[in-house]
Design the sequence.
């Protein structure tokens, strides 16, 4: 994978450092009561959006899910506005109205975050259709989970995207579980990627915890999409370290399974590889990490210093013009 | 004045809107000319005129249709998505209710979804239980949506143009059994403002408030009863949500009595909202409680006599009006 | 295909004769104004349910669609009750409340006829699950069209049936059109049967106008289902001779296409084959046809002699006990 | 009396029903014990007790879940299908509305669909716009369905048992933010009849009619105001459709004033039906128009102060009651 420049590798690392530390801070903030929200930790899955986003432009768009805080951050959603949102503050990306399941930041292409399983895909098609109509070569990424591959919207969306040759990447983060249900207990086929054949679409299963593999798959899919050759389904194998929703009981998982997966944490692995292969020095990486830590601290301060929205905001943004009721 | 059908006026509205604004798109099952320009021809000629990129026939995939419309709308396009019959909106209601209706709010106003859902429905043509329901009460109960239901071809034109202009998602309900009925032709480019009722007949004794096909019949009833000295005011809401409270209340304050009528099932229907509001805001003016008339609380039956019996009848309206007119303060 | 007995062949022919003539009478009745209803003619598709039903038992069940009058009749739904239903009479299968899109006759296993594309499949799964729970080896057939393979319910249903190893036959009558849209314009894959692979389910495309091919596929699928080995997807290639809904404009079809297909009418083809191969004499077949014609005439008389339901029936059967409103 | 949570009482109801009747089935996402027995544990222990054929965890496929339940119900089973949150019923509403609700009618009474849809919802736990909606008005507007919404653990038990017994499809709505609240334990085997309200407090001056969590708070308000000489009658509908007209009308005829309250959005909500009915049937008895109190006409916001502001408050109820109590005939 000699095609990846050191700059790109470091930009991926930078995103991963931001994502990993951000998740740690969010969990800590929930445990301490500073944040009150249902939180779907993405810890362990950082490689996927970090690598994909490093290949995306500002005018590329994404639709993601409740677990997709990392997708939004990796795409460029400002950390401070994100923290303010999760703190329910008026300075949040969504004025505090959306919360963790509905992060939106159009300037950086974060168009929709949805809490309804499967619903990122149909809307991603529309964003991609818009790009096509505008004559742009922008692409759209639809992020979703393995469990979402079992819902009707998945089928309808992949079929339509293939028929219309839409510039979409369907990125399934297969973390082996949907809530408490094992992948094999919910899905009759042994790989989501294989479903792509049912839509005459390329489908590829990759190690979503491996930057190089992820990069190769994403780069190819993005090139295809930009060239007008249509969508790709990428199944990125990964694992969520903190269960479905932070704080829940993960007794449904094998003890050994979780420990083993966490021992293979992709973050230190990639970090060590960067150093071992001579792409960056320990000092350089530590500096990047420190920078990200500082960004997050600043974001937390920004959030905590911000006001809550006034109660009157309940009735604004329902329509463009407030209705007399 | 020349006469046109609903099919013609809605087709014209779509045509004119696409001509006036390159962001207007049309999508849905069979909407392209290669597929006949829609099952009843409402989208005929559009793909020929504006090309198959702006007028897209789709697979039978209502969630994908609505998703494509929402995504394009988020980027500033103005898609008009057809969900062939209103009962089929049930397979796409996640997209409509959880997404189209809420994205503006949940994004704190950063995004908007200026789309129109075109859909047909209505009992009376023997389509049976799964093809005839009026579900406007559901969508009216959903904050973020607007719901219109025109009763004349000209209003259909003007409301469609207004819906396409509108920055928020609108559900445009077409009355299937009336689509080939004729009425005055619309003026090109005209708009009927959303949320504004039309006073079809002015009167003194009883207000009848409704929308859709039946309110036009009620207007004819008013003409007939006028001859007998019963003076009806007839209000066509045109927009169900937000509906024109001022027009409704002004009329009821004048007449002191009201009947609300629609073809949807009566119970938990739009009429309940209107009736409640009238009582809340004009209680002192009322000589008698507001009457609600709607379809029977049952699925729509196939057999003709049953189908007819399930629908609200003009006789019921007449009886209610006569009773109310007879009540003195 | 020497395994098919003459008895079975003749029972298939009998069903086809009933179906073909029944459709002719229905269309004639609509044209004459005797019946008033939207009618989705199945003419040209008779082989599929005639062959499958000849292999089914009374306790096997079906879920079908608006076009499925032939499926119901083939399964055993009485012709007279059917005509009464389509005439809106109180003696109809559904007391006139259902109509052509909702034929139901549980005694012969016709459990659901739906007007919503794709909805026969999820319910078929439930019927099959019930049989499994009861320890019976009864099977369920879900009939649907090629267009229905593009809707979400198809995906969810096939996945669930495969996971639960349900005794279901998913029978897709691929008549090349969904309403006015060509198969290839709506479906990204060139064969519905190929989708089966996405559900680890056997999938087979057969000539649905060929009794022998249809028989082989159905027999294998039914055996599998009865043996507890799970569902099968059968794509039966066919053609509807009278467009989507009777009376509509079929300009969207190529002139030549329709004429060519109608020239290959499976009914006379099978009839001639039975005689040529010595399975039955012309007289025998003519006698069967005459019998079916008489059944249909009797059914029409029964329907026309029956009363319409009283208006009070609008409020019965909404719940088991009528509600005070 | 021992105290139990809703989680416990509903679990007990399912357990007892499965024990009493082998036709009772449970299905839904994560309902099996291998998957933790449900996201909040309502189905815990059931698969252990009754096996994985009768208690089936499903993929995330709500249409397939409802279809499997409908098919099994058609064959005489009594499935209790979980659609985890009420907003997710939108991806299965074709199955619920066009099929479960209508198959009895469309088959002319030949088939029936005795299933129960269990679903949770409710604002107040920061779940935001897509996980908090009360949609009971939609299902109440759908002929063929029954809708219940219990306010105590014991009622939850008795209503669940009644829903499972019932020959028609029932939607059983659980209040997510109240699931761990405690109340009196149910008696094994007890039933709360569908369509029967409970009079939580008897009173003379004003009737407050509602259901769910908030009506219990209203009962406490009644105790407080009683000390100040305001006598409230508090009616918990328990079943939203069909609701107990007799109980409602009897109360209003006595008190002459009414407030209707629910956590769903006010506009086009269940309260509109109740208000309309009261006016229609008890107009002469009313000293003032019926008041409706409900959630704000907006998606449910995430931010705590907004979420709170979106919900109906006890202060609003109190103000309405005081005003109505002060109106003299
Ligand atoms: C339509 C719908 N059904 C059910 C849920 C409840 N739910 C939320 S997340 C989830 C699991 C999704 O699993 P997967 O797609 O694998 O994504 P992951 O959470 O593992 O990232 C479920 C069932 C939902 N949000 N939407
Ligand atoms: C959910 C839904 N969407 C759209 C329709 C309208 N509609 C009725 S039949 C039909 C075509 C179905 O085609 P196919 O599945 O191939 O069956 P065929 O009619 O060819 O037998 C459509 C789009 C419907 N009934 N239900
Ligand atoms: Mg997962
Ligand atoms: Mg077809």
Sequence:
């Amino acid at each position: 994978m000699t095609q990846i420049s050191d700059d790109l590798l470091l930009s991926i690392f930078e995103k991963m450092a931001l994502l990993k530390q951000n998740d740690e801070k969010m969990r800590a903030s929930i445990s301490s009561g500073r944040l009150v929200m249902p939180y779907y930790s993405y810890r362990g899955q950082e490689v996927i959006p970090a690598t994909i986003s490093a290949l995306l432009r500002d005018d590329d768009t994404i639709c993601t899910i409740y677990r997709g805080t990392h997708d939004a951050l990796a795409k460029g959603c400002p950390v401070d506005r994100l923290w303010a949102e999760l703190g329910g503050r008026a300075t949040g990306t969504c004025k505090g109205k959306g919360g963790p399941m509905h992060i939106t930041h159009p300037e950086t292409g974060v168009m929709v975050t949805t809490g309804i399983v499967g619903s990122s895909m149909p809307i991603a098609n529309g964003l991609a259709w818009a790009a096509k109509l505008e004559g742009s070569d922008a692409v759209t990424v639809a992020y979703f989970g393995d469990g979402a591959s079992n819902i009707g919207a998945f089928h309808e969306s992949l079929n339509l995207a293939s028929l219309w040759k839409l510039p979409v990447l369907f990125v399934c983060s297969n973390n082996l579980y949907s809530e408490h249900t094992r992948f094999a207990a919910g899905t009759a086929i042994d790989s989501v990627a294989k479903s792509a054949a049912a839509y005459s679409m390329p489908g590829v299963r990759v190690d979503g915890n491996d930057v190089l593999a992820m990069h190769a798959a994403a780069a190819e899919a993005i090139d295809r999409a930009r060239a007008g050759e249509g969508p790709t389904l990428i199944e990125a194998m990964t694992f969520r370290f903190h269960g479905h929703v932070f704080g829940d009981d993960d007794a449904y998982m094998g003890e050994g399974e979780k420990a083993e997966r966490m021992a293979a944490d992709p973050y230190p692995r990639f970090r060590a590889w960067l150093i071992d292969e001579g792409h960056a020095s320990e000092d350089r990486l530590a500096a990047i990490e420190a920078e990200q830590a500082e960004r997050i601290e600043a974001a937390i301060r920004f959030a905590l210093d911000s006001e809550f929205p006034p109660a009157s905001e309940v009735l604004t943004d329902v329509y463009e013009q407030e209705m007399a009721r | 004045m020349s006469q046109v059908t609903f099919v013609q006026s809605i087709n014209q509205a779509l045509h004119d809107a696409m001509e006036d604004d390159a962001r207007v798109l049309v999508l849905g099952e069979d909407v392209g000319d290669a597929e006949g320009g829609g099952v009843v021809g409402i989208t005929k000629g559009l793909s020929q005129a504006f090309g198959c990129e702006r007028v897209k026939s789709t697979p039978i995939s209502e969630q994908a249709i609505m998703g494509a419309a929402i995504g394009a709308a988020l980027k500033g396009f103005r898609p008009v998505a057809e969900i062939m019959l209103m009962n089929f909106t049930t397979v796409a209601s996640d997209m409509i209710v959880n997404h189209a209706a809420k994205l503006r709010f949940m994004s704190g106003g950063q995004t908007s979804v200026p789309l129109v859902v075109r859909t047909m429905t209505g009992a009376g043509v023997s389509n049976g239980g799964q093809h005839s329901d009026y579900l406007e009460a559901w969508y009216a109960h959903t904050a973020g949506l607007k719901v219109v239901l025109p009763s004349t071809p000209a209003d259909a034109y003007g409301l469609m143009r207004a819906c396409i202009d509108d920055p928020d998602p609108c559900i445009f309900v077409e009355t299937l059994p009336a689509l080939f009925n004729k009425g005055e032709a619309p003026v090109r480019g005209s708009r009927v403002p959303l949320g504004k009722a039309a006073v079809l007949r002015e009167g003194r004794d009883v207000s009848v408030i409704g929308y859709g096909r039946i309110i036009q019949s009620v207007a004819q009833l008013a003409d007939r009863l006028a001859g007998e000295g019963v003076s009806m005011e007839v209000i066509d809401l045109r927009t169900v949500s937000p509906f024109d409270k001022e027009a409704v209340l002004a009329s009821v304050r004048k007449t002191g009595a009201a009947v609300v009528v629609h073809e949807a099932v009566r119970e938990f229907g739009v009429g309940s909202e209107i009736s409640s509001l009238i009582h809340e805001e004009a209680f002192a003016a009322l000589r008698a409680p507001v009457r609600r008339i709607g379809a029977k609380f049952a699925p729509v039956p196939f057999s003709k006599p049953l189908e007819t019996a399930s629908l609200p009848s003009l006789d019921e309206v007449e009886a209610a009006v006569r009773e109310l007119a007879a009540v003195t303060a």
Chain A touches chain B through 48 residues (CB under 8 Å).
